[in-house]
């Protein structure tokens, strides 16, 4: 293709995005757009799958049958999110095997929040309330993102995330209306999950290397700092209802701006966890690798069964 032809295609592509039309897998797209989407969608898919691990730990220890059913449903939803997203990613010309390989070798990242441990039952409440709450704020704008398969997957994902957020908040509410000890457990979970939840929105706008291009492609509709502020403004009143204290001495409402001001995020900790030195990085990756290795016979059996069936179909057709 000549340079001029590429320029024409780029123009058509950019006009489509400007008109808020979707880019579909068979449409022409710049290589950088394709690569950026593979990176972001796979990172998102890996986060859903690795995110099952800290909560999966608590399925057998959930305090009642009702809690167990709800948590089981939530963790299964996360598996479903991962699968939609891997499928969306595959439409960009990368295989599932390559994507897993990237996760297992550490080449691809997943959300650092899942490298923190879940120490008590209250952590399951805090994760639903804060982590799924932050995920919704990150993901709602993606329902309008330019790449069609990603945008469509997000519509269902967001509906399920709001169930996750509410089940988490309800756990917190029950603990906070319980015994003194239960309330302390809820406060302790908030203390440990608050700051990592704020880090889920990524580095500040000044530090974020991908924001500008991603905004242009409508892969991002709001900046990291805008989304983080929205999360804080929404979540602080919810903590008040619970009667819990946000672990930030600098937190205060600014009447003029209508927003909460907040303290300094520990970006050293953020980068340490991103670089693989969080409390559970090694544990999470080895759990994923083991699941992949131990599941080999299931994949082999599924392929053998599919082959047998297609042979049968061919014979019947003859
Ligand atoms: Fe999810
Ligand atoms: Fe979720």
UniProtKB/TrEMBL annotation:
Protein's name according to its UniProt entry: Ring-1,2-phenylacetyl-CoA epoxidase subunit PaaA
Task: Recall the GO molecular function terms of this protein's record.
Answer: phenylacetyl-CoA 1,2-epoxidase activity
- InterPro entries named in the record: Aromatic_CoA_ox/epox, Ferritin-like, Ferritin-like_SF, PaaA, PaaA_PaaC
Query: Its domain of life?
Result: Bacteria
Family annotation (SUPFAM superfamilies): Ferritin-like (SSF47240)
One Pfam short name: PaaA_PaaC
Which is a GO BP term held by this UniProt record? phenylacetate catabolic process
One Gene Ontology cellular component term attached to this UniProt record is: cytosol
């Amino acid at each position: 293709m000549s340079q001029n032809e590429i320029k024409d295609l780029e123009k058509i592509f950019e006009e489509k995005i400007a008109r808020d039309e979707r880019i579909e897998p068979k449409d022409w797209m710049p290589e950088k757009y394709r690569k950026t989407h593979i990176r972001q969608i796979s990172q998102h898919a890996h986060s859903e799958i690795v995110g099952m691990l800290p909560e999966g730990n608590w399925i057998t220890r959930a305090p009642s049958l009702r809690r167990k059913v709800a948590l089981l449903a939530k963790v299964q939803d996360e598996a479903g999110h991962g699968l939609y997203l891997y499928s969306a990613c595959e439409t960009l010309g990368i295989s599932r095997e390559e994507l897993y390989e990237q996760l297992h070798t550490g080449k691809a990242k997943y959300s650092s929040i899942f490298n923190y441990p879940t120490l008590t039952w209250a952590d399951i409440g805090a994760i639903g309330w804060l982590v799924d709450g932050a995920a919704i704020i990150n993901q709602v704008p993606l329902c309008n993102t330019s790449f069609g398969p990603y945008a469509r997957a997000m519509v269902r994902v967001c509906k399920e995330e709001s169930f996750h957020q509410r089940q988490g908040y309800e756990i917190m509410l029950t603990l906070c209306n319980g015994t003194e000890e239960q309330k302390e457990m809820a406060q302790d979970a908030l203390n440990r999950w608050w700051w990592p939840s704020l880090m889920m929105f990524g580095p500040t706008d000044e530090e974020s290397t991908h924001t500008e291009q991603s905004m242009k492609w409508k892969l991002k509709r709001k900046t990291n700092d805008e989304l983080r502020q929205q999360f804080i403004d929404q979540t602080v009143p919810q903590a008040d209802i619970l009667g819990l204290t946000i672990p930030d001495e600098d937190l205060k409402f600014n009447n003029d701006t209508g927003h909460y001001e907040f303290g300094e995020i520990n970006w050293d900790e953020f980068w340490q966890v991103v670089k693989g030195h969080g409390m559970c990085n090694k544990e999470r990756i080895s759990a994923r690798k083991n699941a992949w290795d131990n599941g080999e016979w299931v994949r082999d059996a599924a392929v053998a069964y599919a082959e047998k069936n297609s042979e049968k179909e061919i014979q019947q057709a003859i």
